Amino acid sequence: MKKIFQRPESLKQEPFRYCPGCGHSLIHRLIAECIDELGIRERVIGIAPVGCAVFACDYFNFDILEVAHGRPPAAATGLKRTLPDRVIFSYQGDGDLAAIGTAEIIHAANRGEDISVFFINNTTYGMTGGQMAPTTLIGQKTATSPSGRDPKTAGFPLRMAELLATIEGTSYIARASVDSYKNLIDAKKAVLKAFRYQMEQKGFSLVEILSPCPVDWKLSPKDSQIRIQNEIIPVYPLGTFKDAYQESAH
To answer: Is the pTM of this model over 0.90?
Structure first.
């Protein structure tokens, strides 16, 4: 009998403890599959901060460094400069990367650090109780915006992919989603490219991935996927925002 499925070597034999319908487990799987396909598991170092991403060390079967909230790009910079033969990636949520870590990500991108960043956008602070994040949609109700986000007092959703694409030091910036099978396939292609560009020493890459948070959204897993399609993608459109090496890409 032909084997058509197996657990990626880059994932431990450990059940996920994420909430039902959470997108982190899907994204972990995509990253693990890409690492296996590229044959780089022994060279990879992942970096995870505070937030739901902090559990990454429980599931990835390679070296993981846990760092302070918002600081993965700084840690990644240090690791890559001292261990240039390693493949370094950070795995960050929107509260981490787009709030407390805004300066870190912008300056790492501006320096063109040769790292790969996977930015999980679920429009909320997932771990700490569903507070409003920089990515929260206008009108979205959260623990700290019970009447809905008001741009007059809280500003507008921060579009990090579009922002970072304007920076000269970036090589590849894309946004993907895990709301459907097609988008999962596209997300994996983006993750692969982000890793490959680092291996080819092409500089800074970031893939933003839209992900459901059913518990904080107070929706079922199915309705959370529908929300991504109907409400979130119109605000955060999918696609490639910058590919500095598109003509020479494989």
So the answer is: yes
